[in-house]
Amino acid sequence: MKFKPKTKLRIMVLVHQDLIPPDDTAGITDIERQPWRTEYDVITALKSMGHQAYCVGLYSDLAAVGKAIELFKPHVAVNLLEEFDGQVLFDQHVVSYLELMKQPYTGCNPRGLTLAHDKALTKKILSYHRIPVPGFAVFPKGHKVVRPRKLGFPLFVKSVIEEGSSGISQASVVYDDEKLKERVEFIHQKTQSHAIAEEYIEGRELYVSLIGNGRLQIYTPWELLIQNLPEGSLNIATGRLKWNADYQKKVGLVTKAADLSPELHRKLELLSKRIYRLMSLSGYARLDYRLTKEGEFYLLEANPNPQIARNEDFADSAADSGVRYEELLQKIITLALSYDPAKHLMI
Question: Does domain 202-338 match CATH 3.40.50.300?
Answer without folding.
Answer: no
